[in-house]
Amino acid sequence: METRLAPDQLKAVNFVEEIARAHGMNVYLTGGTIRDFMTGFPIRDLDFTVQGNPLKFQKELEKFGARIESADESTKWISVTFSGGVRAEIEMAHTAKFEKPGKPPLIEPSGIAEDLRCRDFTVNAMALSLNPGSRGLLLDPTNGVADIEGKLIRVLHNYAFLEQPILLIRATRFTTRFHWTLEERTQARYESAREGNYIENVNHRDIGYEIEQLAYEDDPLAVMKALEAQDWLKVLHPHWSTAKVDQNGLAALLKTRQQLLEIGVDGNPSAAVMYFLTDKLPEKETAEIQKAIPNKTLVENWKRLDDDAKELAKKLTGKESATPSMTWDVLTAAKPETFMFLAATTKQQVVQKHIENFFGKWRQIPQRFPLPEMLELQITPAQPNYKEVVDKAFRLMLDGKLRTPGEINKFLKPFAPPPPPPPPPPKEKRGKKAAAEAAAAAEAARKAEAAKKGAAEKPVEAAKKGDKPAAKAAEKKETPKKAAATLPPKPKATTKKAPAKAKPAAKKAGKKK
User: Quick one: CA torsion of 214, 220, 223, 225, rounded to 10 degrees?
Assistant: First the structure.
């Protein structure tokens, strides 16, 4: 579960789990959340079912920062939006008994197993426990996993389309979104309900819910075309058709949303989707559709779109966007919903150019950063001010003040951290062993000093005892400089020639006999 939910969704799940536990209620993730979890489709919203009254959660939810969109006392149901735009519904586990086709059912509290068996389709009748001791346990009493694998939409009850005619519209929406088919018996009942005109008994509140669901579809135009082909679109509103849709505006909106997702910005385009789906309807009929939608926050955002877009366009063409870096700040600070709508509707060339640069050449600037030189300068993400340095360099490059690698490198050098200090000296040893080693070293030094002193005193003692050679040696060793000073000076060299050597005497003439 943790790997499939977005961080904001996971935070919402953990909070609902906590408050349900605090109120002593068992809580489960159910319905479309588990269906999308099992199929691998994006998890659009969170469906919670509690064994108890979730209306008691309202104060805690508001303290947590969630916005209550709507609540129903009769069915014990709440629609909530958490931070990050996470949509959720929290309802009481219940059974429903339909006394008349299309009329609101009689609601009775129940356990989770009974609740699941009373749902619309098998693929929506699964639950995941969030309770201690069974957390993560999947409940699938109607074998919805098998229908997911078979890509089938199967109703749970023989009279489902009679009791709840809105399921005819919902089944068509699901088969279009998932590209699945109706199970054989479900298809037969679907055709029979269409021929019997069961749809005339549809509940007005259910119509508003299905209109709202169009705003959250990934391809709302495809769903509208499918509904129109089955004559269900006129059930949502008699004058609504795909001809009333601004298809170019809708395509531009969804393209901009995808561009934002690719750079890590997630916005909620639902209000703008409804704007384009009803763009060519008269104002009166648009107001009727808005009135039918139960989520009033969605309607308020829809009505505010034009004003918010005009305000953003004014900033993009005024002093607040005097430089590229200032324009960047305006666009990054804008609400994603307003950004998307403006990108899809603006006719101003300046605004169009700014948005084009935002997604285009401005995002290529970080590729010019001299990363090897930054690494050599020890400017890395581990540095506390790394983000600040990079952001400042990026803004200067946006404004054309840093153009070449040399200029960028020169800018970065002052931000290089100082070299690391030398390692500290080794710590002195402590303890008995260290003290013994120190004492032994001191004793060895003392003995060496004594031996040296004794060697110096030995010749002097020998002289006292009459040992003349030793005394002379001591005297010579002790006063070498003084002795040298008392010697007579050497005679200076002269230039006189030395006398010739005498010739040897003549040999005697005779020899001794």
Answer: 120
Closest CA to 183 of 147, 152, 140: 152
Tokens of 504: 């040897």
Helix (H) / strand (E) containing 82: strand 77-82
Per residue in 455-496, pLDDT (tens digit) is 655 555 555 555 555 445 545 544 444 444 444 454 444 444
Show the 3-state SS of 92-159: ECEEEECCCCCCCCEEEECCHHHHHHCCCEHHHCCEEECCCCCCCCEECCCCHHHHHHHCEECECCCC
Residues present in the chain in total: 513
Q: Are 50 and 26 in contact (CB under 8 A)?
A: yes
User: If you search the block for the tokens 């001791």, which residue do you land on?
Assistant: 133
Alpha helices in 349-467 (DSSP H): 349-359, 371-376, 386-398, 405-412, 432-464
Six token digits for residue 152: 């089938």
Q: How many CB atoms lie within 10 A of CB 297?
A: 16
Asked whether the beta carbons of 417 and 378 are under 8 A apart, the reply is: yes
Residue with tokens 């959340």: 33
414-427 pLDDT tens trace: 988 887 777 777 66
> Positive or negative, the Cα torsion across 192, 196, 198, 200?
positive
Q: What are the contacts of 371-380 at 24+ separation with CB within 8 A?
A: 373/405, 373/409, 373/412, 374/412, 377/412, 377/413, 377/415, 377/416, 378/416, 378/417, 379/412, 379/415, 379/416, 379/417
Instruction: Provide the pairing of β-strand 46-50 with 94-97.
Output: unpaired
pTM: 0.78
What is the spatial distance between Cα 477 and Cα 109, in angstroms, rounded to a whole number? 117
Residue 259 exposed, middle or buried by CB count within 10 Å (0-12, 13-18, 19+): middle
Give just the sign of the alpha carbon dihedral 9, 13, 15, 16: positive
Tokens representing residue 40 in the block: 């691998």
Nearest to 89 by CA among 148, 39, 27: 27
State how far the Cα of 203 lies from the Cα of 217, in Å rounded to an integer: 22
Flag whether pLDDT at 439 surpasses 90: no
* Residues 6 or more apart whose Cβ sits within 8 Å of residue 136: 1, 128, 129
